What we know:
This protein has 270 residues and is of the alpha/beta class. It has helices at 23-54, 62-69, 110-120, 142-145, 161-170, 209-214, 252-268; strands at 74-78, 82-87, 94-99, 123-127, 153-159, 175-181, 195-201, 224-228. Helix 2 (62-69) runs parallel beside helix 3 and helix 3 (110-120) packs across helix 7 (252-268).
Amino acid sequence: MRATERSSTGPNEIHGPSPRPHKAVRKRRILRFSVISLASLIVLAAVGILVWANVGVMQAETGPLDKVRTNPAVSLHETPESFILSPTAGASGVGLVFIPGAKVSADAYLYKLSGAVVESGLTVVVTKPVLNLAFFDQRPLTTFTNAALDVDSWFVGGHSLGGVRACQYAAQPDVSGLILFGSYCANDLADVDTRVLSLSGSTDQLSTPEKIMDAAHLLPTSTTFFPIDGANHARFGDYGLQAGDGVATLDSSVVRDVITAEVDSFLRNS
């Protein structure tokens, strides 16, 4: 009788250890996992920034904006990059590139700036910052000055965070001066040969008068500081109340008149 052959998978067979992946393969797997994880985090962060930057943007009040649109002395033109305000007659050849504060709609500043357009013949280009935040907007100044090629001399300015970005433009040799609206510089312009007007609000609790003066050493000694008594942070635009701000005691139209007079005086002496 033939002996029964033992199955190769019989219960008494002793198996050796399972082969392990080569070290190079394991490293590739770890690297792939790390890259995918990092890419996922970057995508999530980008989506989060996009959502945050576009939610809660403070919009222009309709009343002041309608006054600009119906003013026969002011021409208003909109492009994908900016709003352009210009006088319908008597243009001075001087322009201002104005940068809005963080998460404030660009057209919320048109009424406050339109007074200087009429009074001084000033052309104003109000930028539309990338993601509604000036520090994300690294486009060159020519992106905005090219919108008004008939302007011979350009000033830069801005409100709040927009003013901080304007300070960076102000260091360029082709810029004639800087106008700050409830703002202050983070870069040093003390030795830059340029003229500066700093407008502030006495009840501003965001760019407080103390913060503005604490940063005054970054500006030329010839800088003109003009505090507007009774103005808060939001009074430099027309977009309603702003969280953390003080209470304004000066009417918005009066603040516009003060801004107009001070900007006109500054430009005439530049």
